[in-house]
Amino acid sequence: MGSITRALPLLLLLLCAHGTAAQHFLRLRPSPSEHLPVPGLIEEPDPEYDPREQDLSEKTLRKKLGSHFDPNFMSIHLPAQLNTSAPPDLPRMPIPPELKKLDLAETPYGRRVKVGKKARRKFLQWLWMYTHCPVLYTWKDLGARFWPRYIKEGNCFSERSCSFPEGMSCKPVKSVTKTFLRWYCQGFLRQKFCTWIPVQYPIISECKCSC
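Above: the chain's sequence. Below: its structure in token form.
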């Protein structure tokens, strides 16, 4: 159990065939989380692998999850507002220092052009808005075999290129991990043991314009 909780923010639940009758059981296996957000998991459809009503006591599960419960990124019930992000056209953060240091008067041919302060400020604001890569958050239903069931997942804005000229795109550069409980069954048919185990789930926290 300790090795699972100390694992890197990796998560892949694989459905494995077992025996000549192709009986199925779930096995937890880590896989590198270089590609975020985490794709949807393919679950065993048999309801025998679902937690029962007595396994879903909120008081018991809150105690088991402890301080890992983060209401900012997880919810027990379906949130009223599924899309939690503001429109990405107006960055709320100030212009980064590397853009402020940009010398707009210098040309590739060694000539210098005059650029007024007002024009420079407006151009830098436009450039920052065009190349800014916000993280867009939406609530995702992980299914009945996760607790809490709903996670606020981050995605990089991808409706257009973030570079000028076009060619680059917004990609994740940082992520945070949140600990959830996973209903884990080992065995098959009625000879199985099921329990809640902690698993780490990576969430995109920062995106940047890159190749």
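Strands lie at 12-18, 23-29, 74-75, 135-141, 146-147, 150-156, 169-188, 191-210.
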